[in-house]
Amino acid sequence: MTLKAATSLPDARLFLTDAPVMTKRGVTEAGTSKESGQLRVAIVHYWLVSMRGGEKVLEELCRMFPQADIFTLVCNRDRISDFLKTRNIRTSFLQKIPGAQRHYAKMLPLMPFALEQFDLQDYDLVLSSESGPAKGIITRADALHVCYCHSPMRYIWDQFHVYRHGLPWVGRALMSITAPVLRAWDVTTSSRVDVFVANSEYVASRIRRFYDRDAVVIHPPVATDDFAVGKGKGEFYLYAGQLTTYKRPDIAVRACTEAGRKLVVIGEGEQLPYLKSIAGPTVQFLGHQPFNVLRDHLSRCRALLFPGTEDFGILPVEAMASGRPVLAFDAGGARETVSAPQVGFRFAEQTTEALLETMAAFEEVEDDIDPHAIRAHSLKFSSAVFRDRLSGLIEQQLSSHRDGAAGVFRRRPG
């Protein structure tokens, strides 16, 4: 039996272009979503158990792609923003394990299995928000996967020994056994990403080191409009953030105790009892505080003390959006944010002595610092700049992907 064409064959030149796609609703342009023509978007975030820098980025991604579905390993709806609560959030099987919302970090060996259970075959664009293991999801072969990397997993790479030493002997033994397997999985899954976007040059260098991949640097969004320049000269230094070892709050506490300077500490963590034991009468601990209290203290402080090493560090930019200078350790993202002489000082050694010397230098010129110039500098890191740069990159990559040129940012051998 011979099949006859209903119409005559078209000009052969038409076969050089993309073929039309036949669906139940007729012909759609090649490369669009099969049913509606709308881009189907999935956002994969490692876990949703608090509102920190990574979750602020997630909110901006949701504003850029309001049709997106969120996939996350574990979600505590009581500790996320009202905005995120309105989104369609899908969790993994880890959510059903008792205590998962508090002890999710202990489930790290199970996370690769949980991620790969997510079915993303209906999505054209997948955005992974990576700090834990988020990029390891499996996408459709022709989908575009863009990974916004806040940090390669610190606890299995450069911070492995710091985290391991803080565990009891059983935890240290388990971490020693599972970490090599997780590292191998982490490196292997980097090939599932079409484009890496790093939140700083510092993170981009770590992506090159651990994954042998290049990354486009787009700084994370800072809600600079939520802050305003304070009035008058501040009377106290401020430390804010988690009170954990690698952030080195002890340097700020010791420096202000020795210098007899007022210091307000906002935050909580396992180091709090130790910090109180070394603090003098000029140091005040406020514990965890809501955003409005933090914003008020940022607008009234003399300067923010930032002695840790962060991948980017949103808090220094928030301080600058409040017109306040930053005294930061010369490492990590601070090199990219505290990057002009009018916005603060960086100290070369992560020691109390180095911070004391920097405080003395700052106080000599404190009266000459212009708060409005500091705020103007902070606007380079605004949410609007983030949205413009990331949307432009994604549009470019979607176009290239449809033309068969995806992966141009991958590092090629030789």
From TrEMBL:
GO terms for molecular function: glycosyltransferase activity. Residues 231-366 form the Glycosyl transferase family domain. It comes from the Bacteria. Residues 52-225 form the Glycosyltransferase subfamily 4-like N-terminal domain. SUPFAM superfamilies: UDP-Glycosyltransferase/glycogen phosphorylase. Keywords: Transferase. InterPro entries: Glyco_trans_1, Glyco_trans_4-like_N, Glycosyltransferase_grp1. Pfam families: Glyco_transf_4, Glycos_transf_1. This is Glycosyltransferase involved in cell wall biosynthesis.
